[in-house]
Amino acid sequence: MVTTKLIFIYPNSGESYCADMKEWVENTGVFDEDFVSYVNKWCEVGASLVESCCRTTPDAIRAIYRTLSHRSPAAPMQ
User: Is the pTM of this model over 0.85?
Assistant: First the structure.
């Protein structure tokens, strides 16, 4: 174990924000399916909580929930 602290994953969709134009640049992120494919990997390497941030969609959030609901709870930290 590297740390006894909780690890939170709070990724966005991967899209870019253009500060000059003050808007998100479409089609620069990942599809919901690709985004959600990382959830198990994050948990396997120690994530305690997986959330979502900017530009994630309701479908991605539902898919994260479905993925996490099929996982066994993590062992309590010592």
Answer: no
